[in-house]
């Protein structure tokens, strides 16, 4: 099995982060959520629009890390007393 070079490992991260850096402030300026900006950035660089990533396996690890970080941010913003108030 051939080892991937450092450029092949970092390039997808740089492309995804660059798309997010552009999309999130734009969506925030339009009074939309930053999560929609992240989704739009993913759709933009994905195979359906620009086609920068055609192989899903090439960005699978970055997408898994993104889901974990997203759940972590949700956990930080969760307030137990609000959750308890919504139970009824």
From TrEMBL:
It comes from Belnapia arida. This is Cation:proton antiporter. Gene3D superfamilies: 1.20.1530.20. Residues 17-87 form the Cation/H+ exchanger transmembrane domain. The keyword Transmembrane helix applies. It is found in: Membrane. Keywords: Membrane, Transmembrane, Transmembrane helix. It is a multi-pass membrane protein. The chain crosses the membrane at residues 6-28, 35-53, 59-78. InterPro entries: Cation/H_exchanger_TM, Na+/solute_symporter_sf. The keyword Transport does not apply. It comes from the Bacteria.
């Amino acid at each position: 099995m051939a080892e991937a070079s450092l450029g092949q490992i970092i390039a997808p991260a740089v492309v995804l982060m660059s798309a997010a850096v552009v999309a999130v402030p734009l969506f925030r300026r339009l009074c939309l959520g930053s999560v929609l900006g992240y989704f739009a950035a993913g759709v933009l660089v994905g195979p359906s629009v620009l086609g920068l990533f055609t192989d899903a396996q090439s960005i699978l690890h970055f997408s898994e890390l993104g889901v974990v970080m997203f759940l972590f941010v949700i956990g930080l913003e969760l307030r137990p007393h609000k959750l308890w108030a919504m139970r009824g």
